[in-house]
């Protein structure tokens, strides 16, 4: 137990620093004050018998052992050792203990909140700089669980851990005071008390194992929960929601089983501790009296301290078992933080000052698994040109966009932005000027104002910019027709809007941000013909104002692009305008013919 506790102490100390020492010192101070206050009971009982003279000090001192120095100190001050003085002194020590206890508990609350906030903020900062390639292989349920339920469990573990340390310190203080009063009796009870701790080792181990399994199952449950919300429409429409519900229920039952197991183990430990402690005390008293022939009066003060100390031992054991039931979450948070730290994105030092010369790809190669996605690709994207990227599924269209965004690093070749190698560029600043609209528009459950401004303070200037962006995205018409206009709450994932309306809100957000590069990734593939036409007209109206990349399944969307990059399986590609590819590429012409969208020449 000490080794494990020290490891976790380092974990908490890493977040809270020297603040943890203050709580421990306060615990020691409380125990000392309590011990001194209890010591006053023996001379107090003598005084209550009517001995208010110095005889009280002598009689009580005999039963106090080495603690008699306290009475000598009181007498040295000129105060009489009498009933009134002893009561006032004892009251004073317990009042001081109460003040110290309040200060300790209050400071612990502050530390607990600081700890939880720092842990969340630290994980959020690490996630924000998490490498995208590593993120693609991450478990979404684990990420969600580590940011929500796990933080709460670790906070509870922190609370139980420091309660355990507080009791442990009080136990040491009471044991020390008991040794001063009656060393032999204290040693006997203390040794037996420590040995009793081994009786709970199997319970501790089982609790730790159950806690770890509970954390693992919570990851799975959170993953199921995320997917059930993200896929709610599909599950509801197909009637599969009941089948999926059964899967989630199985996970809930498994979680409940592990929670019940940790609770049962804790109940067993709590039920056994006090009877074992009392057995130790009874046996120790009988041995002292019957075997060693010691008078019971000489053990009273030591017994009083030991009773307090054994109570602290019970409290420490209870807190430790409760801590172990949450400790699996600490192991997870530690491992999660290390994984995030190990895969932090490497950002170049060259500042990005806006798009001027465009983007250039030179002999790029990118592989995923055993397949080649991009091979020896060279292509230029001039500033304020519209570029179409087309190809069959699996030819690397979205992968190429991820490379252009600086999300993925290429295996070979070079990506330059304004003539600067992307590896040397501050890609965080570069991405801040990229607008990205996907097939499933990113809409948040909030007002249209907040969706477009991304929660900028809603000043008159911001409102004007929002309306300007809505107009530029051809979204002002339907927004003005809504009862609450841009104050309308659009629902989860924009469920209260049509597909085309969601896309135009997404485009408006990127235009509001005044981006340099606007990426439309299959933005029209899920829309009806009328909505697609509106988005297409929107793209054409923006041509020449922005550098635009259009990844398209429907070739009509990129018909007027300045240039088209036509990707083939295995990393091969062709480039040209729509008309030149129609003339030179049989594969492109066949793709156009299959879509049959009218007169294309």
From TrEMBL:
<feature type="transmembrane region" description="Helical">
    <location>
        <begin position="12"/>
        <end position="33"/>
    </location>
</feature>
<keyword id="KW-0472">Membrane</keyword>
<dbReference type="InterPro" id="IPR003439">
    <property type="entry name" value="ABC_transporter-like_ATP-bd"/>
</dbReference>
<feature type="transmembrane region" description="Helical">
    <location>
        <begin position="185"/>
        <end position="204"/>
    </location>
</feature>
<feature type="transmembrane region" description="Helical">
    <location>
        <begin position="73"/>
        <end position="96"/>
    </location>
</feature>
<dbReference type="InterPro" id="IPR017871">
    <property type="entry name" value="ABC_transporter-like_CS"/>
</dbReference>
<feature type="domain" description="ABC transmembrane type-1">
    <location>
        <begin position="67"/>
        <end position="325"/>
    </location>
</feature>
<keyword id="KW-1133">Transmembrane helix</keyword>
<dbReference type="InterPro" id="IPR036640">
    <property type="entry name" value="ABC1_TM_sf"/>
</dbReference>
<keyword id="KW-0813">Transport</keyword>
<dbReference type="GO" id="GO:0034040">
    <property type="term" value="F:ATPase-coupled lipid transmembrane transporter activity"/>
</dbReference>
<dbReference type="GO" id="GO:0140359">
    <property type="term" value="F:ABC-type transporter activity"/>
</dbReference>
<dbReference type="GO" id="GO:0016887">
    <property type="term" value="F:ATP hydrolysis activity"/>
</dbReference>
<dbReference type="InterPro" id="IPR011527">
    <property type="entry name" value="ABC1_TM_dom"/>
</dbReference>
<keyword id="KW-0067">ATP-binding</keyword>
<dbReference type="InterPro" id="IPR039421">
    <property type="entry name" value="Type_1_exporter"/>
</dbReference>
<dbReference type="Pfam" id="PF00664">
    <property type="entry name" value="ABC_membrane"/>
</dbReference>
<feature type="domain" description="ABC transporter">
    <location>
        <begin position="359"/>
        <end position="594"/>
    </location>
</feature>
<keyword id="KW-0547">Nucleotide-binding</keyword>
<dbReference type="GO" id="GO:0005886">
    <property type="term" value="C:plasma membrane"/>
</dbReference>
<keyword id="KW-0812">Transmembrane</keyword>
<feature type="transmembrane region" description="Helical">
    <location>
        <begin position="161"/>
        <end position="179"/>
    </location>
</feature>
<feature type="transmembrane region" description="Helical">
    <location>
        <begin position="276"/>
        <end position="292"/>
    </location>
</feature>
<dbReference type="InterPro" id="IPR003593">
    <property type="entry name" value="AAA+_ATPase"/>
</dbReference>
<keyword id="KW-1003">Cell membrane</keyword>
<dbReference type="Pfam" id="PF00005">
    <property type="entry name" value="ABC_tran"/>
</dbReference>
<dbReference type="GO" id="GO:0005524">
    <property type="term" value="F:ATP binding"/>
</dbReference>
<protein>
    <submittedName>
        <fullName>ABC transporter ATP-binding protein</fullName>
    </submittedName>
</protein>
<dbReference type="InterPro" id="IPR027417">
    <property type="entry name" value="P-loop_NTPase"/>
</dbReference>
């Amino acid at each position: 137990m000490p080794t494990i506790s020290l490891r976790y102490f380092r974990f908490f100390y890493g977040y809270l620093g020297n603040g943890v020492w203050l709580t421990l010192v306060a615990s020691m101070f409380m125990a000392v004050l309590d011990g001194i206050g209890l010591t006053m009971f023996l001379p107090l009982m003598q005084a209550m018998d009517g001995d208010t003279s110095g005889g009280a000090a002598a009689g009580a001192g005999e039963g106090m052992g080495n603690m008699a120095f306290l009475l000598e100190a009181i007498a040295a001050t000129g105060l009489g050792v009498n009933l009134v003085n002893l009561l006032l002194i004892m009251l004073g020590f317990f009042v001081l203990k109460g003040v110290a206890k309040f200060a300790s508990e209050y400071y612990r609350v502050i530390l607990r909140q600081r700890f939880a906030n720092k842990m969340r903020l630290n994980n959020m900062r690490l996630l924000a700089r998490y490498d995208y390639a590593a993120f693609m292989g991450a478990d979404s349920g684990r990420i969600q669980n580590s940011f929500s339920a796990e933080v709460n469990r670790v906070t509870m573990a922190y609370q139980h851990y420091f309660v355990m340390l507080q009791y442990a310190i009080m136990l040491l203080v009471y044991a020390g005071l008991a040794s001063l009063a009656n060393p032999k009796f204290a040693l006997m009870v203390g040794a037996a008390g420590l040995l009793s701790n081994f009786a709970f080792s199997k319970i501790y181990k089982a609790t730790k194992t159950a806690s770890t399994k509970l954390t693992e199952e919570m990851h799975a449950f959170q993953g199921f929960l995320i997917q059930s919300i993200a896929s709610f429409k599909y599950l509801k429409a197909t009637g599969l929601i009941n089948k999926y519900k059964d899967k989630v229920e199985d996970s809930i039952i498994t979680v409940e089983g592990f929670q019940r197991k940790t609770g049962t183990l804790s109940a067993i430990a709590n039920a056994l501790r006090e009877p074992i402690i009392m057995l130790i005390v009874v046996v120790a008293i009988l041995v002292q009296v019957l075997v060693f022939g010691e008078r019971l009066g000489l053990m009273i003060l030591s017994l009083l301290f030991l009773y307090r100390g054994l109570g602290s031992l019970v409290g420490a054991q209870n807190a430790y078992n409760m801590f172990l039931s949450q400790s699996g979450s600490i192991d997870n948070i530690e491992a999660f933080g290390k994984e995030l730290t190990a895969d932090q994105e490497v950002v170049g030092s060259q500042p990005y000052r806006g798009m001027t010369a465009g983007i250039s790809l030179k002999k790029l190669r990118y592989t995923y698994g055993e397949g080649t996605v991009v091979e020896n690709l060279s292509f230029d994207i001039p500033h304020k040109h519209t570029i179409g990227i087309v190809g069959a599924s699996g030819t690397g269209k979205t992968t190429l966009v991820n490379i252009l965004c600086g999300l993925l690093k290429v295996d070979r070749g070079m990506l330059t932005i304004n003539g600067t190698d992307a590896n040397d560029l501050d890609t965080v600043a570069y991405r801040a000027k990229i607008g990205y609209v996907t097939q499933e528009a990113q809409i948040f459950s909030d007002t249209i104002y907040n969706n477009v401004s991304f929660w900028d303070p809603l000043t008159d200037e911001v409102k004007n910019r929002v309306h300007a962006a809505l107009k530029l995205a051809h979204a002002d018409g339907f927004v003005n027709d809504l009862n609450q206009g841009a104050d309308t709450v659009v629902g989860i994932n924009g469920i209260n809007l049509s597909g085309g309306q969601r896309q135009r809100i997404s485009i408006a957000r990127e235009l509001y941000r005044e981006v340099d590069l606007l990426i439309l990734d299959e933005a029209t593939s899920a829309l009806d013909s009328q909505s697609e036409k509106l988005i297409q007209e929107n793209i054409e109206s923006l041509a020449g104002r922005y550098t635009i990349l259009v990844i398209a399944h429907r070739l009509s969307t990129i018909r007027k692009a300045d240039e088209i990059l036509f990707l083939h399986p295995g990393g091969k590609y062709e480039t040209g305008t729509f008309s030149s590819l129609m003339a030179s590429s049989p594969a492109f012409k066949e793709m156009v013919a299959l879509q049959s969208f009218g007169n294309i020449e």
